[in-house]
Description:
This protein is an alpha+beta fold. It has helices spanning about 5-25, 30-55, 60-65, 145-150, 165-170, 175-180, 185-205, and strands at about 55-60, 90, 105-120, 120-130, 155-160, 175.
Amino acid sequence: MSQKLHPYRxxxxxxxxxxxxxxxxxxxxxxxxxLKRQDxxxxxxxxxxxxxxxxxxxFDMEARLEEYAGVESIxxxxxxxxTIPAAVLYVxxxxxxxxxxxxDDAFIDGMYVREAVEDGKxxxxxxxxxxxxxxxxxxxxxxxxxxxxxGRVVNAFAPFGASIERGMRRLGFRGCMSxxxxxxxxxxxxxxxxxxxxxxxxxxxxRR
Length: 208
């Protein structure tokens, strides 16, 4: 079950690809387009390290989001402030959420969420990540393929005091433009609001 989740799947695939490259004695060189994505991959790796240190908190929303597969618009109140239960948490959308990138094998798989400060404002930082179905077959995945897929990262920030969606859109999105410009990303934003509402309800329930 856990192997389908991005933080575990990413680590396992990266280790497998790295081991094959060492066995084949391949040089540590990539095309320039791939090198540009290495920084994003390092960001994801560091984020996963922070997530582990924060207790590996996961909200698996795939079954819930399957109800909305194919639905183009859902109304969700983002709320003025949402409290998260850990310094970093991972929200799993999964392939069942049907957030596939057009003309590609990849899909938007989930997001990491943590409190952060940007331009002196405290809020939530969102890191949307991608995956693809073949990642459960580590023996056939190359490191270049991993870089191509994991390098598709989109970051957003929403300051407390306004709705999450309004904050995201006002400050804009940063990262992989092929994901940002894809129709699936607009759906992912809506799904993220629904997920954060569920996270907030969970936190409030625990405190009662």
